Amino acid sequence: MKKVKSVMWVILCIVLFLAVFAGSVISKAKNIFGGELFTAFALQGEAASDKLSDGDLTKKLVDINYIREDGTIDDSRQIIVYRPTDRTGDLPLVYIPHYAADETTADFVSYIRHGWAVAAPYDFKTEYNGILETDDLVFNNAALYELRHMDGIDKQRIAIVGGSAGGYMCMMLNGLQMGTTAAIANSPIVNAYFNFHEYFPACDEVNRESGMFDFRMPIQGMVSKYFQPVNDLIPADDVDRWEAVSAISMAKAYSNPVVITHNTSDILVPKDQLTHQYTYDDNDGTLPDGFNAKLPSDYPGILSSTFEELADPDELTVNHIDISKDYTLAGDLPYADTLLTLDIIDDGPTTAKGSHNNPKQTGSLDNFPYLEEQMDRTLAGTEKAVPQKLLLLLERYAGKSLALPAHTGVDDSVYGSLAVYQQEIVDELSVWAGNHSAEELSRAMEEAIDSAGDEADREAWKEIQKKL
Hints:
15 helices; 16% strand; alpha/beta
């Protein structure tokens, strides 16, 4: 009987501890996110004062089949496509990757009100965070491929807008593909090795060393577990794979305008992986001394390099938006004529009290003027034949991509197969040639191969030319 009572007492203590911890985390999460945890992570903008009614838009579910990393076919996932009911014909499209779309945000409402279509994954599950760089990456590429071949979508006006893990997906989609008119990536993870394999475990260690009822980083602690499977899927010493699934490896390959926004206080996705500029030396005192979320300089390969260091300096503009005095963010999204614009929002040092931004921050930037201008320019006016992108496409055509492994002998009609990848690349290059000329494409491709390619690239290009 005494043993039973002892066991029951231990169980009761554990239950009480978990209840108190959960209550603390949820309470702090609500203070930061207003109760919408993963909606806030998606960074899709503030709530709209203008509400959409059921009659303002139509919704269509589309099945997306793709080949998983293990060679099996996943036919369980869908995307949802929204269209304003008062518009017909081919519409501009905004694709929101990884997360489900929040239909109540001002950005979403603005897209629909202006006659654009919106698409996003349907029925988001937290388990998808754990396959972010593997199967979820393939799924989102497959979704974009489907959208580009869908009736009712203007193929010359497709934008991608994502935040946090969705920002990661935005950067990867734009790095791996051609055919996007413009993009916005908010707080994107551009160095997966740093963010998931090193930084998240370091944050978990801070929590383990905290007091029983005073977890220093409760929000980060709750988030990190969902991404932990990433570390189990990619070995720590597989440097080539970590580089391939990180946007830093494609910093010179972006061929369309991309605006990246990032707050200096971000505790979930440290800004320092983008640029060392405007990074604070220490935190705001809410974390252990020296915890500054800086990118270490001793990682292998390019994993210790920032995105800025690896990008083409002639195609990168860095803007500093200082709101550290009143924490009020307002105005239009700043952007430059370069392919890449990095908007650093200075809201103070890293803080355990925040998430992607300081909790004192109010307001947001209006991204519509930027997207509207790029949509007006269309793909013909925004996309360049960047040498590194062309070489990346040739690598994918040959089935050598580590980010998007090509499958043979499974089903050549399903996305993820080498056959579909090759058709996708032929389609993308055909569109570029149609917007410019076959002669310009041939000249750009030959120059890229001569400068950094090899004979395998040249053979792939010869094969592609026969299909164009």
